[in-house]
Amino acid sequence: MKHVAVVGGGISGLTAAYRLRRLLGDRVTITVFESTAAIGGKLRTAEVGGVSYDVGAEAFLARRPEVVALVEEVGLADRLVHPTKARAKIHAGGSVQSLPPGTVMGVPASAESVAGVLSEDGRRAVEKERSLGPVELGEADVPLGPLLRTRFGDELVDRLVDPLLGGVYAGGADGLGLRATMPGLATAIEGGASSLTEAASSLLPKTPGTAPVFGTLTGGLRGLLDRLLELSGAELRTSSTVRALTRTPSGWRLEFGAAAPSHAPADSPVDADAVLLAVPAPAARKLLDGVAPVASTAFGEVELASMAVVAFAFPPGTELPDASGILIGAGERDAEGVPYASKAFTFSSNKWAHLGDAGPVLVRGSVGRFGEPGALNGDDDSLVAAVRADLARLAGVTAEPIDTLVTRWGGGLPQYGTGHLERVNRIETAVAEVPGLAVAGATLHGVGLPACVATADAAARRIAEQLFV
Ligand SMILES: Cc1cc2nc3c(=O)[nH]c(=O)nc-3n(C[C@H](O)[C@H](O)[C@H](O)COP(=O)(O)OP(=O)(O)OC[C@H]3O[C@@H](n4cnc5c(N)ncnc54)[C@H](O)[C@@H]3O)c2cc1C
Fold this sequence. Notes:
By secondary structure, the chain is of the alpha+beta class. The protein has helices at 11-24, 66-73, 111-114, 120-128, 144-152, 154-169, 178-181, 183-190, 196-203, 222-232, 281-288, 293-300, 348-351, 353-356, 380-395, 420-432, 449-467; strands at residues 2-7, 28-33, 45-48, 51-54, 60-61, 80-81, 88-92, 95-98, 103-104, 107-108, 214-217, 235-237, 242-248, 251-256, 270-272, 274-277, 304-314, 325-328, 342-346, 361-367, 403-414, 437-439. It has three domains: 2-40 and 221-302 and 416-467, FAD/NAD(P)-binding domain, CATH 3.50.50; 59-86 and 304-414, Protoporphyrinogen oxidase, mitochondrial, domain 2 (Polyamine Oxidase, Chain A, domain 2, Alpha-Beta Complex), CATH 3.90.660.20; 102-203, protoporphyrinogen ix oxidase, domain 3, CATH 1.10.3110.
């Protein structure tokens, strides 16, 4: 009987634990060590206004197969739902408009598709992109912002691309890498597309609107975490921070930080035959320091964006705009020239039919962009006040909430800058040289849930192969 220690009880760690059990059956005991008091990491289903409501990640990309397949595999297909037909809006150029369909994260397949959010000059700049000559991409990743600004002009980036990227990475185009965040566009260019417009066009579905783009689970994403843990048969140790990782002649030793309050004695060390790390970059940096120093250094280079989600339950019947939500660009102002603290609102009762029927009217406000703590610096009361003021200005919602919950996600999202792919290559090469060690999670191949699940599957397979060659 071998023992595998999984460090981190987020979606990546729990998927890995589940996959290890599927691969190895009763030949292995599995322990999941989680530093906080509960599993989930960036997935958290809370009670807001008496309704189970996700206040971390709220949905997953259903166009990628990993999460949908996992949900079906663990027997939760009956809880899988897709958004209603409500469309998203965007505050662009000073007013709220429909979010243009037919773009790849704001990179358009035609100037017409984005004309609604651009000035006439902006539209013309986009139109010209096709005739600018080929896009030259070198071996290394290129900064997305400067490339798009040169090809399409600033307006498209500021009004459309940035708000969309901000929703995923909490970072803007100028700090992110093309290959790291939009690999499909780079591949299309390398495959012969003569412009970014043509590359975007080649990536969009030929018959738009046929397949659902996103999915979630009724009752909240917590249902998936619980099921993964249950089926993994793993022992869960919460409030258990792995402080140090060392190699022993036969495997690994995990040492623990003192549980809070800090005077309490630390748990005794635990030995394991293999270790799977599914923790954010700062923890991975620390734990790999003595065992895979090159990987540790690379994890240490990853920058993180902080954000907060302010969840509201309004009285039943509260009127919301006819939309699934509103994105807000960084430079946007209201009619009086006053900026917004929020970067997006999700009108969850409009977006998800099961929440629309739930009773209270549910809304999520998101705050926080990379390098701009802004309203995050204030206390919870001032954050709630700022987000409510935005909601009133943008959507005319002035009702008194019956419940409010602030959830802060300090360092919640790794930034995929131009050095990201090379950094991940360094991490994976260094870890591959250490037997009985694997890494998974949002730092590697995408922050979205499908990408996290993919890394967890791969890490579990690596451990399984190594333990029973
Ligand atoms: C507010 C927000 C909204 C998001 N929305 C979406 C969305 O709608 N759709 C989507 O696809 N993605 C979304 N994301 C991204 C996605 O949620 C995350 O990238 C993903 O959940 C990360 O999962 P993970 O398991 O890799 O890491 P985490 O969820 O960070 O889990 C890592 C776990 O490790 C634990 N840990 C850390 N150090 C130690 C240690 N030393 N010992 C033991 N345990 C430790 C942590 O407590 C944590 O529980 C969102 C992210 C945020 C922050």
